[in-house]
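Q: My labmate handed me this sequence with no annotations at all. I'd like to see what the chain might look like in three dimensions before we decide whether it's worth expressing. Could you predict it?
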Amino acid sequence: MKYILTYLLLLALSTNVLAQATLKKIKVEGNQFVTEEGKPVVFRGLNVADPDNLLNKGHWSKAFFQEVKNWGATIVRFPVHPTTWRKQGKDNYLKLLDDGVKWATELGLYVIIDWHSIGNLRTEMYQADMYETTQKETFEFWRTMAKHFKGNTTVAFFELFNEPTVYNGQLGTCTWAQWKEFNEEMIGIIRAHGNDAIPLVAGFNWAYDLTPVKKNPISAPGIAYVSHPYPMKRPKPWEDKWTADWGFVAKKYPMILTEIGFSGAEEVGAHVPVISDESYGEAITKYTAERGISWVGWVFDDRWAPRMFSDWDFTPTRQGKFFKKALLEFNSGSKP
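A: Here is what I predict for the chain of 336 residues:
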């Protein structure tokens, strides 16, 4: 009997491992994301709310992930706030992430795990209480993620820090050289644990500005860069400004815009810097398609703004209608 139980336990464990590792591994080759066979991949997907938030609302479920898939996404981003990470505790939060990764795997969705803080990691000063963290906690978080998701091909990306900003000096100072050192430290910790998920590095100005990369890129192979080019970051016309501020990076490195989105001024939750209209959606999706840049729309929720839907029947908002159509067209191949 003991041997039968041991066999059944090992079978269950091996089945779980196989279920968690069915998506093709993604790696960096030149300025592209590629599969192990070398096939280029451009990701287009959706952000969800913090898993803790969705759990509290009763919507952290496979049915919710099925709707993400129904909208045409190929990737989903999990924003983990430091406060919810501490509130749930490591074991409980890892269970949330495990469930989300399992559902994503079953539906063929890749995952970005994002440490969702906004502020200055050097001074440990932040834009709001929900983003409060420390250098040690941030490093420990990535040590935990690296160990826990080692070998899991669904968790293709680790976004090291959501939106770095000194808030016009109100949060102290941080040079690019200092920020670069923090990122290289986190990448080193992740890779020392044998995890080869792709690290995503954001620049200053709330993850918008990557101009320092021209002269002083991150000293680590196999990484990608992030920008959050919301419409009010620059006035129209956007394209030349985008190229100068962050788009130039895509000529040499893979890029993924882990937050894009817009809201009409009259809509629920409208705020700086997201107020715009469909012209922004058309511009950013065309710009990224021409340059092979991946993107993730913010945010697949009924409350967080700019929201993609207005109720739990998933009724699309104004931007929801735009991005649902764009996701279905681009990811089906009907748009180039």
